[in-house]
Every structure is written in C-alpha cells, then in structure tokens.
Here is the input.
Amino acid sequence: MDRMLPSRTLQSKAVRGMTAMVIIFLLTLLSSAAFAQRVTTQVSQRTITVSDQIELEIQIEGRYDQRVDPDLSDWTVVSESTGSQVQIINGQTSQTKVIRRTLEPRRAGNLKIGAAQLLIGGQVVAAAPAIDIVVREDQQLPVLPSGSAANLSAYKGQQLFIFPSVSQDTVYEGEPVLLMFDLYAAASLRVSDGGGSKVPNLDNFLVSDVTPDGRKGQSRKQVDGTLYNVFPLRWNIVVPLKAGPTTIGSMEMKVQAGSIFDARRMTLRSNPFSIEILPVPTEGRPPAYRDGNVGEFTIQASLSVSGNEAKVGERVFLNVQIAGKGNLEALKAPDLEPIDGVTIERLAGSETSNIQRDTSGISGDVSFSYILTPQRSGTVKIPGIAFSYFHPKTKKFVTIKTTGLEFKVAESETAAAASSSAPGGGLKPITADVSTASHSVDRSKTTPVFWLALGLPFLFYLSTEFSLRLRKRRTDNAPQIRSKRALASARRMLKESLEYQREGKEQDFYNQITRALLGYLEDRFGVAASGMTHDAIRRFFAEKGCDSQLADQLISELENCDFARFAPAAVRKEEMQRSLDRSLALLETLDRWATTLGVQRAA
Here is the structure.
C-alpha cells in the first residue's frame, strides 16, 4: 500500500495539470471568440416615403485591414457622425466603432443598402447582409379650398404640423397680403434641426421676407385642449402679379422630434391651399388711374422756388409725394396738365422712396420730381395734380388731387436790358451835348457788391445744374457702385453678427448671416434675392453658368440659418462659428467666380 501512494499522487497531479490546460484552452477560445471581428448594420425604418430620411448605424469590432462600406448608390448621405464604445471582458478591453449616417432616398421603389464587410489579407472575415427598404411616393395632400387654410381645428389630435395661413382669402391683383407658415409642436415635444426645408413656388408674386427675428414671433397657443409651441418658419408679404385662382404649394421641412430619449427624424409638409386673386375692375376706371395703383394713399405737392418768384428761363422744381399703404413700388408718376407758357419735364431717375415692410403690409411714401421752365413773365398757376387708385377694401376707385400752386415770373435781366435798348421814338441824329456832358462816374457799378449781385443768378444756375447732373450720375451708377462694394458690405454684416454670437442671440446671429448672403447677391448681381425661392436661386446660378455645387452650398447655408430660428436648443457656439467661417469662405468664392465672369450687375 505504501508503495502505491506515490503512483496515485503522480496520477492526481497529472489530472490536475490536464484540467488546468483544458481550462486555459477554453478561456483562450472564449477570449478569442469574444474579440473576433464583427460588423453589423441596422436602420431606423424599413418603410418610408420619398421625402423621408432614415438612420443607418454600422457597428465594427475587432482588427481588420480593409473595410468595405455598404453600397449607397440609391441614397443621398445627408450627414455622418462617428463614435466608439468601450467594453471590458475578462480583464481585456475591446472597442466598438459606431458610424451613423442619415440617408435620403433618391427615388421611390424597393431600394437597397448594400452589405458591409471587413477584410484581412484580402479575405472576408466579417460581413453584414444587405438591407431592403421600401420607399413609397409621397402622399398627395389635398388642396384646401379658399377660406379653409386658417382652420386650425382640422389639425385636432396632431402633435406636430406646419400650418399655412394668409391674412385674407380673397385679394386683388397688386394688393399686398401676409403669407405665413408656422410650425406647431405639442408642448411635450422637443424639436430640432432635421436637415433641410423647401418653400413653395411663389413665381407669380413679389415677395418680401418679414419673418420675425429671434424669439419675437414665438408663442404658445391652445388648440382643442392641446397646448402648442408655435414657431414662425416663413412669413412673407406677397403681392400677386396675375389675376385668377392660385394655389399656394406645400412647405416641406425635415425635423427631429420626440422626447429627449426617443427622438426620430420626420418630414413635415403643409397642405397646399388656394386663394382667389381678383382683377382690378375695368369699369369705372378714372383717367388718372394707372395699373398697379392699388392701396390707400394721400398726395401733396411743393415747389422749390425762392421767394415764390422765378425769372424767365429759370428752372423751378416741383415735387409730388404719394404716401400711404399698398403696392408703393408699383406706383406710376402722375401726369401734369399742360401749363400755358411753361415747359414741363419729368426728372428721370429722380424717384425717391421710403418704404417699410412688416407684418401689417407695405407702407411709406414715394416722391416724383418735375422741372418747370417758364417762357414768359407773369403768374404761373399749377392746377391740382390728380392721382387715382383702387381701394381694395371699399372695392372702389378713388381720385385725389393736390392743392393748386402758383408762383410769379419776372423778366430775366438780359430780356429787360434788350427791351430798354429797343428804339421807341424814330431815328434821331447822333449828337453830343457838350454843354451838359458830365464826367462823373457812378461808383456803385464798380463795387464788388455790384458784381457779386450781378453774378448770383448765374452762380445759382450753375450750382443747380451741377447738383442735378451729380444726382443723376449717382442714380445711374448706383447699381455699379453697390456691385463693386458688395463683398465689403457683406463682410461688414458678418462682422456685426459676432456681437450676436458673443451675446448668445442665436436667432439674431443667423438672421444676420442670411442678410449678408442675400444682400451680397442683391448688390453684386442686381437681383431681388430676398424674394427668390431656393429653386429660383439655383436657376439664376445655372443661367450664369455657375457650378451647381456652389449654388448648393449657398442654399444649404440659407437652410441652416432658417432652422436656427426655431430650434435654438440645437445650436452650439462652435457651430455658430463654423457657420460664420463657411459663409465668409462662400462669399469670397462667389466673388472670385463673379469677377472671373466679369459680372458687375445682372443683365
């Protein structure tokens, strides 16, 4: 028995050793399995519409030589971000790389997101299968009839929607109205930038942007028991250019909405709606009416003549000012009745205006200048100047007149001298009366005061003529001057936005960026960029032969600014700085392209 003990002890040790080796081997296998190469893909939705976006997430673990990303030829990558996750298993650390991409379908149909692969030495060591996505056409929203667009009760029960409205459903051609698109979000929802927006085509309107700055337009509203946060997306004063039934198309916006832990991307579209644009009546039009004179106005006239007296041949300026509310930019200069003995000339390019645009409409005044040149002495009487307009509220034509004006006209000094030297008593012999001849000299005619008084009318004429020519030159060259200074003006506006950035006023900051970009286009190319849709801006650049990528960069930055007005929570200071840097670089690129093209202003 004693001899057998060492043998058993040896066997026991051998068994324990084998067991330890097996355990180590199994742990090695488990560890190897735990940290093997792996790639997975998943999407947020598998059935969407052509206007929607989806989130693609790719997770990668382990070492690899080469990565083959999914084929995304059917998709547009809207945005991309990367991150990592760290895990510790059995004392060993592993890292998972996470790639997130926001995708937008290029078309409707059965689309694919291709397979993802990891390779080592040219061999596939891990793969994720392709994913099928069903993309349907957008549902055609019904066109709301005139008068129903402002019916909020139709949205009962909806947590998030774009509400279109217009200040009046029936409008006359040339009458300014307020068109609004507001985002209604239930108070329990968080809403942030979703990556883009599309505004309806407003080619049949003159458009002025009056969207409130910053938080001024934001409000809260109770609708059928639901409390909503209301954000102004796009407010425009629009002036219809053509009569007839008109449909205002949908505004489209991509947003990310939900709770703080469960937010998803979605595309919102407003219902298109119709408004009736009536023609200005032809019956009963007064002679002084001109197309475009729509609104409510007053008129007054004034003369620029010293002491209410002028001389024959001297220019007298008549100023006619029309003030009120309506389509001021389309007002036509009133015609003056002929005045006997006076030539009348309207001073071309002399129109001046002081126009304000806000949510109440368009108001201000426009002035027209005329030159009156009397041809003989006497009293010049200017009859009341008639101006006719159509009042859309009363649906009647109105004719208003200025009060009559008059001024006296004296003979010019040259005419008086010619008259006094004319022969009046027949021919007489030229004789000298030596006895009564006087050698005294009238000293008053040799003093500086005499010559100064004699030259004053001529100096006044020269200064007036010079002033008119200088004013006309400035008016004629104003577009070229603005074009040359466009970049400097835009840079100055961008510099002013830094103050908003420092104060944390995100909406004011992005509004200033928008003004700088659109203001540059208006000054450099002479186009009304603030009233152009994004599609119209693209068409403008295409007609100028500009690279579409440059136009897309501009549109993208404008859309980025649009979103910042209603989603301040999504804006960080570093993003504001990046937006400022992008805008400055974009303006400099645009200016280099315009200089190469030789553009001074739009044709």
Remarks:
- Residues 448-484 form the longest helix (37 residues).
- The domain at 152-278 is CATH 2.60.40 (Immunoglobulin-like).
- Residues 579 and 591 are 18 Å apart (CA to CA).
- The chain has a mean pLDDT of 79.
